[in-house]
Amino acid sequence: MSVDQTTVRRIAKLARIAVAEEAVPHLQDELNAMLSFVEQLSEVNVDGVEPMTSVIPMEMKKRQDGVTDGGYAELIVRNAPETEDNFFVVPKVVE
């Protein structure tokens, strides 16, 4: 895939980046170099290769999923003008 100067200008416009006209050829070369590198990466055979989170094999740190805080809903809604069963009561805004 190759990027022409019109495409470079369009990308800059979509990204809302001001690009001087003399910088367009340089950006075209850089974008084409990036795309050629991506094409090289697609040629690599990665069948059977597990995704990595690090270069060193490691287990993810996990914690027990449990409630460690709460149980004081009465205190939270205490200053509300109107409550019902420890919930805030608000006026209906959608018909």
UniProtKB/TrEMBL annotation:
Pfam families in alphabetical order: GatC
Record-listed E.C. numbers: 6.3.5.-
Entries under InterPro entries matching the protein: Asp/Glu-ADT_sf_sub_c (IPR036113), GatC (IPR003837)
Reaction catalyzed: L-glutamyl-tRNA(Gln) + L-glutamine + ATP + H2O = L-glutaminyl-tRNA(Gln) + L-glutamate + ADP + phosphate + H(+); L-aspartyl-tRNA(Asn) + L-glutamine + ATP + H2O = L-asparaginyl-tRNA(Asn) + L-glutamate + ADP + phosphate + 2 H(+)
Lineage: superkingdom: Bacteria
Residues making up the signal peptide according to the UniProt record: none
Keyword Protein biosynthesis among record annotations: yes
Keywords: ATP-binding, Ligase, Nucleotide-binding, Protein biosynthesis
Enzyme class: ligase
Subunit structure: Heterotrimer of A, B and C subunits.
Role: Allows the formation of correctly charged Asn-tRNA(Asn) or Gln-tRNA(Gln) through the transamidation of misacylated Asp-tRNA(Asn) or Glu-tRNA(Gln) in organisms which lack either or both of asparaginyl-tRNA or glutaminyl-tRNA synthetases. The reaction takes place in the presence of glutamine and ATP through an activated phospho-Asp-tRNA(Asn) or phospho-Glu-tRNA(Gln).
HAMAP family linked to this entry: GatC
Family statement: Belongs to the GatC family.
Protein name: Aspartyl/glutamyl-tRNA(Asn/Gln) amidotransferase subunit C
Protein's organism: Hohaiivirga grylli
